[in-house]
């Protein structure tokens, strides 16, 4: 069977299909009805009044002001947050420096106390075998 | 009869200036001795303009209907219809009558529609601006004479299914399908309007009908 005859057969089949025919007929009538209505409907062109232009301009101006306001507010907020972060960093550094100083002072104090204790202990506990020497030292000092 | 410098034809809502270009130089340069010849040419142009005006009135609804069904956009169909007749007017002198005026106009309309879709594809950012009505809205228009509500519902459902199938067709298949089943044109006329062979038209039509049948079969 030639391709052309096959296509013709298919088209003939379509013609024999009642449901298809009805659907196509309804489709055609629907498009015709829609087209007739749209074709005969009067076209209206909206005139642009000066009031509308002003309203449009005011809308644009308001939108621009709003956009600028939002942008400026955002920038201010960003700067404020940066300033707060900087102050917090400075305070943190101060606190750390103070803590380090206190630690160092405490270490110095403890070392001094230890040395004083050692000095004290050494001066008080002279062995008995060293007593004559201690007396000699005391006599030399008196002379 | 006085000189005819130019005249306007009213084409259902828009005016096209039908100034006779070919005759204008002759008319302007006419001397008293050439007056009868000038008048004859002017009369010929007037007749041509009258013919064109009549053709517009006769075929405009059909062209508009085809473009509306193709685009599903009332405003776009109106614009393309106007462009079609402006183009036809520009080329009216070149129309030899080898095919019917309707076939000639339909060919212009098909080309305009094709150009439009090609331009839209290039300007992809315009996709959101389409005014095409959706399939439900397009199916709202029901053929009159359906008595019961049940029949109305059935008809609406069928129309909706056909629209869905039409939407899924390729541009060429859709054009051929609409010309055959909406405009009820003969296959030979469709072949002339689309510039395809009759066999190709049949093949496209067969595929389009198969698609519609499949779509309708889904609801059985």
Which SSEs are present, and which pair or pack?
The complex is a heterodimer of chains A (143) and B (220).
Chain A: H1 3-16, H2 18-40, H3 50-124, H4 131-142
Chain B: E1 8-11, E2 14-17, H1 21-28, H2 35-71, H3 74-90, H4 101-122, H5 135-138, H6 149-168, H7 171-181, H8 187-194, H9 198-217
Antiparallel strand pairs in B: 1-2
Helix pairs in contact in B: 1-2, 2-3, 2-4, 3-4, 4-8, 6-9, 7-9, 8-9
Please provide a written account of the structure.
By secondary structure, chain A is mostly helical. Chain A has a domain at 1-42. In chain A, 87% of the residues lie in helices and 0% in strands. Chain A starts with a helix and ends with a helix. Chain B has 220 residues and is mainly α. Chain B folds into two domains: 7-132, Rna Polymerase Sigma Factor, Chain: A (Orthogonal Bundle), CATH 1.10.1740.10; 133-220, Winged helix-like DNA-binding domain superfamily/Winged helix DNA-binding domain (Arc Repressor Mutant, subunit A, Orthogonal Bundle), CATH 1.10.10. Chain B contains nine helices and two strands. Chain B has helices at 21-28, 35-71, 74-90, 101-122, 135-138, 149-168, 171-181, 187-194, 198-217, and strands at 8-11, 14-17. A two-stranded antiparallel sheet of chain B has the order 1-2. In chain B, helix 2 crosses helix 4 and helix 6 crosses helix 9 (198-217). The termini of chain B are far apart. The model of chain B is unreliable at 1-32 (pLDDT under 50). The interface between A and B is medium-sized, with 29 and 36 residues.
């Amino acid at each position: 069977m030639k391709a052309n005859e096959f296509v013709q057969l298919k088209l003939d089949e379509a013609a024999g299909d009642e449901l298809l025919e009805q659907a196509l007929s309804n489709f055609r009538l629907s498009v015709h009805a829609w087209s007739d209505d749209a074709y005969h409907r009067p076209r209206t062109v909206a005139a642009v009044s000066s009031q509308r232009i002003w309203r449009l301009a005011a809308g644009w101006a308001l939108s621009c002001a709003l956009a600028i306001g939002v942008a400026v507010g955002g920038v201010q907020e960003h700067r404020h947050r940066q300033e707060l972060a900087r102050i917090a960093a400075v305070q943190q550094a101060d606190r750390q420096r103070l803590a380090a100083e206190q630690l160092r002072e405490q270490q110095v104090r403890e070392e001094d106390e230890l040395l004083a204790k050692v000095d004290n202990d050494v001066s008080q506990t002279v062995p008995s075998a060293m007593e004559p020497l201690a007396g000699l030292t005391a006599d030399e000092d008196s002379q | 009869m006085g000189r005819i410098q130019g005249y306007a034809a009213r084409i259902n809502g828009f005016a096209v200036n039908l100034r006779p270009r070919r005759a204008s130089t002759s008319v302007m340069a006419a001397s008293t001795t050439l007056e009868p010849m000038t008048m004859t040419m002017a009369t010929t142009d007037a007749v041509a303009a009258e013919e064109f005006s009549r053709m517009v009135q006769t075929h405009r609804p059909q062209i508009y209907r085809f473009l509306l069904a193709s685009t599903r956009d009332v405003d776009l169909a109106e614009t393309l219809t106007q462009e079609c007749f402006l183009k036809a007017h520009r080329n009216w002198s070149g129309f030899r009558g080898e095919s019917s005026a309707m076939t000639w106009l339909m060919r212009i309309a098909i080309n305009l529609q094709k150009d439009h879709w090609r331009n839209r594809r290039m300007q992809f950012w315009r996709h959101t601006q389409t005014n095409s009505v959706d399939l439900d809205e397009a199916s709202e228009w029901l053929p009159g004479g359906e008595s019961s509500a049940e029949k109305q519902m059935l008809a609406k459902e069928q129309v909706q299914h056909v629209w869905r199938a039409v939407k899924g067709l390729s541009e060429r298949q859709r054009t051929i399908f609409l010309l055959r089943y909406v405009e009820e044109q003969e296959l030979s006329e469709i072949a002339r309007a689309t510039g395809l062979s009759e066999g190709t038209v049949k093949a496209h039509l067969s595929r389009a009908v198969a698609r519609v049948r499949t779509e309708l079969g889904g609801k059985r």
